[in-house]
UniProtKB/TrEMBL annotation:
Keyword Methyltransferase: no
Signal peptide, first to last residue: none
Name this polypeptide is given: Thiamine pyrophosphate enzyme TPP-binding domain-containing protein
Molecular function via GO: carboxy-lyase activity; magnesium ion binding; thiamine pyrophosphate binding
One Gene Ontology biological process: small molecule metabolic process
Any single Pfam family the record assigns to this protein: TPP_enzyme_C
Membrane-traversing stretches: none
Sorted UniProt keywords: Decarboxylase, Lyase, Thiamine pyrophosphate
SUPFAM superfamilies named in the record: Thiamin diphosphate-binding fold (THDP-binding) (SSF52518)
Residue ranges of every copy of the Thiamine pyrophosphate enzyme TPP-binding domain listed in the record: 48-168
Alphabetized InterPro entries for the sequence: THDP-binding, TPP-bd_CS, TPP_dependent_decarboxylase, TPP_enzyme_TPP-bd
Source species of the chain: Neoroseomonas eburnea
Length: 199
């Protein structure tokens, strides 16, 4: 049974990352943010279309935005923690202004900077609502996933309708169980080759 915060179930990031990756059938690009977002993406199964960002906090959404602009026929997902997105909130306004139809940002919100010591983020205790910020920035398709079933519905919408989309997910504090290889050159080369292939 899942814990609840308000009317939102607290879910598990690794399990949802596996659900996301298992449902990708058309060479969609996935950009994993630093730390746990990245490690869970690695653990969900390595794909050449995955980009494992190392050491660049807050840049998953901007990098995914760039990929989406460069690859308009390809669906692109960013997996980002609440603390990381809070470092780059300006990217939401830029994304809204450019309105890439193929971009979705999944925000894992546990209210802490988990890999730097568990300090509270401004999103803790519902003081900062990232989905509301996305909407106020001009991203109309921004919603909280109330539970796992709604997460699947929101991902399916991101795969089949025009975006940009923001999907907020309240998650638990379980640490990532995998460690991404520390090989940025290999990741860059593999991802570039994958992006050169048609969708």
């Amino acid at each position: 049974m899942t814990e609840t915060t308000g009317n939102l179930h607290v879910m598990n990031r690794a399990a949802l990352t596996k659900r996301l990756v298992a449902g990708l059938k058309n060479r969609e690009a996935v950009i994993g943010g630093i730390g746990n977002s990245n490690w869970d993406l690695w653990g969900a199964g390595q794909r050449p279309e995955n980009f494992y960002m190392l050491g660049s906090m807050g840049l998953a959404a901007p990098i995914a935005f760039g990929v989406a602009i460069a690859q308009p026929a390809r669906r692109v997902f960013a997996l980002e923690g609440d603390g990381s997105l809070l470092m780059q909130l300006g990217c939401l306004s830029t994304i809204a202004a450019q309105a890439p139809k193929n971009l979705a940002i999944i925000v894992w919100d546990n209210g802490i900077y988990q890999i730097t010591g568990g300090q509270s983020t401004p999103a803790a205790q519902a003081r900062t609502d990232i989905v509301a910020i996305a909407r106020a920035s001009g991203i109309a398709s921004a919603a909280w996933a109330a539970d796992e079933a709604e997460f699947d519905v929101l991902v399916a919408r991101a795969l089949t309708t025009d975006g940009p989309h923001v999907i907020g997910v309240k998650i638990d504090n379980e640490p990532g169980r995998n460690q991404t290889d520390r090989d940025p050159i290999r990741f860059r080369e593999s991802f570039m080759r994958a992006m050169a292939e048609p969708v």
